[in-house]
Amino acid sequence: MAVSVTIDDVAAHAGVSIKTVSRVVNREANVSEKTRNKVMAAIEALNYRPNQAARGLAGRRSYLIGVVYDNISPNYLINLQSGMIETCHAASYGLALCPVAYAETGLVEHVMAWVRHSQVDGVLLTPPLTDCAPLLVALEKAGVPVVLVSSLGAGQVPAVVIDEVEAARQMTLHLIALGHTEIGFIKGPAAHSASQSRYEGFKAALAGAGIAINGAYVVEGRFDFDSGEIAAQRLLKGKRPTAIFASNDDMAAGVLHAAHKLGIAIPEALAVVGFDDTPISRQVWPSLTTIRQPIREMGNHAADLLLQLIAKKVLVEDGSSMVFQHGFELKVRGSSQKTSI
Amino acid sequence: MAVSVTIDDVAAHAGVSIKTVSRVVNREANVSEKTRNKVMAAIEALNYRPNQAARGLAGRRSYLIGVVYDNISPNYLINLQSGMIETCHAASYGLALCPVAYAETGLVEHVMAWVRHSQVDGVLLTPPLTDCAPLLVALEKAGVPVVLVSSLGAGQVPAVVIDEVEAARQMTLHLIALGHTEIGFIKGPAAHSASQSRYEGFKAALAGAGIAINGAYVVEGRFDFDSGEIAAQRLLKGKRPTAIFASNDDMAAGVLHAAHKLGIAIPEALAVVGFDDTPISRQVWPSLTTIRQPIREMGNHAADLLLQLIAKKVLVEDGSSMVFQHGFELKVRGSSQKTSI
DNA sequence: TTGAAAGCGCTAACAC
DNA sequence: GTGTTAGCGCTTTCAA
């Protein structure tokens, strides 16, 4: 870390006090246009960059926000991370990573120890950690600002989401429009709120179309490839559905794998659809019909929200909702109807 | 960032000076066993965690190392990241991320600006950035310690790698052992050193088996799925090879996609193999024969090496080589020979 | 083997 | 609108 030019150098160069430089750097009010320009010029001329350690020490902050995640889907995560980094960087903040295993014992203690150790100013929570109520309580008690991604959570925690229920409903309507009435559904783990929402949307579409739901066609997976394959093996035994809606792409890819093994033609003998539009959806054969979420933008938004919370520019008030909904898109590909891909 | 207990509290509790506490925390020599124990007990009792900002300010370091990467393969990256984070965390260091696009103009300036701004104490470079000579020069000139991952680079830069040539050679021998003599090869981008090494291994195996190389069967891709598919379309037109070795899994998956479209049976009519053992290799149909690298462990090792370089426990001396080779593993699956997967 | 003093570069609180 | 002063919590330097 080669830092040489300090705030004193800039102040001297601009002929002002260090406090004024500090004001300009931190975009505070009460600096005349003229002074600001002088200081900016000095910063430019000297190529000055504030020392984060000194800022943090004096300001009692770390200029760091954390993301806690369970590595379920690398594609989802990397995209989310880049969105978050982009926003953090623009605000001279850093992003600290806390990878965990959702199922591990002592999860809450692990995360809280990390929060204390890394001294982050706030925390972004991704699914399924968004659904861990004890963790939310512990963070709240510790006074750490939190923003949830892709999940509503419980209570008043700010969140950046898509309308999962509506997305799943539209996906189901797509299958119904293709003539399917015998539709299998692979749920995610019960503990994930996304599992519930997607299943709800599925049920709503069926109900709307007057199609009775067949309990034997609904099974549960773990959101990963293997569990999708296993679930499909159960669904495809004996009398079977003509379409399967898997709650995410990884499981849908597992369904394709199982169908291939059984020699079932896709989409002629079986339509398969997923959710998330991860790269795997385009890399399997045939490509998966799925739902695209603007993940990177959601990462931007979540980080931005958290920074505002930290700066107390936005306050979480009792009774006010801080849920921000992003749009989604139905991507129709070869796994549900004959196309060129 | 709720930090309350400071080094003074610990010193008071243990009945020593703050310097002694500092010595214990930093594992310095010249502290008696008895004093050390007293201090450790106090740290434990008060649940003390050193303030990174203060450490950084006083010690003129950021306690941060950076990874620069182009998001080519999320799976590879997430695994590498977790390895690096693990090691960093154990050393009370943080990991800062710098995502870039290898092809962008002003890449070197971008990275150097980030290095100055984030004030990292050292940098880890992943492929293909390891092959960007101007960047290596700029980092060296700035006096920033660097470690390369998965690439030899040029000159004396420390690196953590696998023997790519040998791995590609063994993969090719596997195909030859299955009876193939007409083998197609999809290279990676010429600018990546991995592309060269893997191709070399391929050629070495053919030469060793007395098989002449057919120039028409060697094409170049960009290490991504789409380029693999396009390359396969070319290779599979007219007289075609009986096996295709793609230099990474993403391209191999693209080959499978193309073969499926053309109705070519895998592995009966065409054997396909990849490289990297990314999750996609198990998620396509049939599963891909590939080479597994211990990515996470390489992440550990690279971070560890960089920390030693920063602490000057290890020095890069002229004439000494600092290349550390990890083992690899040939994973045989259904895309090259009939198996159950 | 241990400690005292100085100061890293910045922000906060308050003065002007 | 601008400047002064006093630390933030630690490592460094030097002395004991």
TrEMBL record, chains A, B:
SUPFAM superfamilies, A to Z: lambda repressor-like DNA-binding domains (SSF47413), Periplasmic binding protein-like I (SSF53822)
GO MF entries: DNA binding
Species for this entry: Kordiimonas pumila
Protein keywords: DNA-binding, Transcription, Transcription regulation
CDD domains in UniProt: HTH_LacI, PBP1_SalR
Protein name from the UniProt record: LacI family DNA-binding transcriptional regulator
Phylogenetic placement of the source organism: Bacteria, Pseudomonadati, Pseudomonadota, Alphaproteobacteria, Kordiimonadales
Cross-referenced SMART domains: HTH_LACI
Annotated HTH lacI-type domain residues: 5-59
Alphabetized PANTHER family for the sequence: LACI-RELATED TRANSCRIPTIONAL REPRESSOR, LACTOSE OPERON REPRESSOR
